[in-house]
Task: inverse folding
């Protein structure tokens, strides 16, 4: 006798259906096949104990459990519930007519309770696309998928509740997880730009970066406000669109950090410590979990004191910053995660931190300064859109200046610029100016004769690379969006060069 239940496995942020096939025949023993790992093989002991605790019997015959397709490695404890329900169905102890209409995911404890597992959101999206009527998740995990329309999401706490759902009992509808709706964005607890003293140039640069999703490097002496301004960035970023929210929420769901109330609405802000490992930053490990760069997708990745990070860590960001995705290849797997994040980095200009502050306090030798700056490679710097020197705040600005422009006002300008980009790129598959490739730059950043002549002068004077030229045009496009202009003007390009040139004196002479 053959019976089937359905589970799912996540590969990256996408899920695949795993068919749990059960066959009972004359003989003795329970055999689990289908490329299971240790956690899956141990599931048989958990399942048997959980079934007996509910008064069910284990068939005294040969039971073969196959997890298909057999060429995909099955990892984790999420198959327990589907295996238990399959055993009950194939042995005839419980008739469950809806067994093949649901994807069932969950870990069983020895007393039959259902424990949470990661990946509920991508599994629910896959089940909807595959034509299943619904999904059964642990109660603690079901909330992640509550906002997915067109499919019934059930949350269960015990094995018996899952049985009631597959039997079609009316009382099972009480286990339905209702959509929580898009949450209201609250920024009252976030740092506000109104508390930033002075720093007009840096504030303007961060507004441009937020409007276009550009990467930023803040360089300046300690105490000048670099970390504070970076922490204010979330307060001026617009809420995610539904498409952005689904992808970002999938990443957090796979990593085991899913939002219990449904989809995420606020953009993530990740700030890893300098001691972070390569696998934690980029992604990987035994189960190919997403790293911090993927958890910052559609949000901000802030590297405080970036020069203190390992050189290999910094250089490993070059390809993700450029492509907006990362491919993790190991012997056992190859997984691709999206990582379209806004990189914000801060550093001191020298080891002691006081170079260029106008006080003459810097005691670093030229060799020490060169060694310190060599930790940030040229190719990495070339991928940073805006490079801003944050000067020390003077006494008058620090003591007498009133509140500056609040984040709510800046956020309004940023939101209008982002809306222009959403309309512009509605058929291009991107959301911000920072993601434009060469063909899109040519299409949306055409230059007039004056602008072309000026850019030729800039390229010769500053010896810019082709990548730097493209990034200046992207920044110019964002500045034009902030002004509500359809075309890029000479004024937009001039301001963009000020934020791009490494030598401020050269920039001001252009």
Result:
């Amino acid at each position: 006798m053959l019976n089937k239940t359905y589970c799912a496995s996540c590969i990256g942020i996408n899920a695949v259906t795993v068919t749990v096939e059960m066959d009972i025949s004359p003989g003795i023993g329970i055999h689990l096949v289908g490329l299971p790992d240790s956690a899956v093989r141990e599931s048989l002991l958990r399942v048997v104990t959980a079934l007996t605790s509910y008064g069910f019997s284990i068939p005294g015959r040969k039971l073969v459990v196959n997890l298909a397709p057999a060429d995909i490695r099955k990892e984790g404890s999420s198959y327990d519930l589907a295996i238990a329900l399959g055993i009950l169905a194939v042995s005839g102890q419980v008739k469950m007519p809806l067994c093949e209409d649901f994807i069932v995911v969950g870990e069983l404890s020895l007393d039959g309770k259902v424990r949470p597992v990661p990946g509920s959101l991508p599994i629910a999206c896959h089940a909807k696309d595959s034509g299943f009527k619904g999904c059964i998740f642990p109660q603690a995990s079901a909330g992640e998928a509550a906002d997915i329309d067109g499919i019934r999401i059930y949350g269960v706490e015990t094995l018996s509740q899952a049985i009631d759902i597959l039997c079609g009992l009316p009382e099972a509808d009480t286990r339905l997880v209702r959509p929580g709706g898009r949450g209201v964005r609250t920024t009252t607890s976030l740092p506000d730009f109104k508390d930033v003293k002075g720093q007009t140039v840096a504030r303007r640069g961060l507004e441009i970066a937020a409007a276009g999703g550009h990467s930023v490097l803040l360089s300046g002496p300690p105490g000048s406000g670099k970390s504070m301004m970076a922490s204010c960035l979330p307060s001026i970023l617009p809420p995610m669109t539904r498409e952005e929210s689904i992808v970002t929420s999938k990443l957090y769901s796979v990593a085991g950090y899913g939002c219990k109330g449904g989809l995420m609405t606020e953009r993530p802000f990740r700030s890893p410590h300098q001691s972070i490992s390569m696998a934690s930053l980029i992604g990987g490990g035994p189960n190919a979990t997403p790293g911090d760069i993927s958890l910052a997708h559609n949000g901000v990745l802030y590297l405080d004191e970036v020069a203190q990070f390992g050189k290999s860590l910094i250089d490993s960001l070059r390809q993700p910053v450029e492509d907006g995705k990362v491919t993790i290849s190991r012997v056992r797997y190859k997984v691709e995660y999206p990582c379209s994040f806004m990189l914000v980095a801060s550093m001191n200009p020298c080891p002691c931190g006081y170079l260029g502050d106008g006080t003459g306090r810097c005691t670093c030798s030229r060799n020490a300064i060169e060694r310190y700056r060599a930790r940030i490679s040229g190719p990495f710097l070339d991928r940073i859109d805006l490079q801003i020197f944050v000067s020390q705040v003077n006494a008058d600005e620090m003591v007498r200046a009133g509140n500056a422009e609040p984040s709510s006002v800046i956020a309004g300008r940023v939101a209008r610029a982002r809306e222009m980009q959403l309309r512009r790129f509605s058929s291009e598959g991107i959301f911000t100016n920072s993601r434009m490739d060469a063909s899109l730059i040519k299409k949306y950043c055409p230059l007039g004769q004056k602008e072309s002549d000026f850019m030729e002068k800039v390229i010769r004077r500053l010896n810019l690379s082709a990548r730097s030229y493209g990034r200046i045009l992207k920044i110019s496009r964002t500045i034009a969006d902030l002004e509500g202009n359809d075309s890029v003007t000479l004024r937009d390009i001039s301001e963009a060069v000020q934020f791009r040139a490494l030598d401020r004196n050269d920039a001001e002479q252009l």
In short: The radius of gyration is 28 Å. The chain has two domains: 2-175, 193-402. Residues 13 and 250 are 6 Å apart (CA to CA). Residues 193-402 form a domain with the Rossmann fold fold (CATH 3.40.50.300).
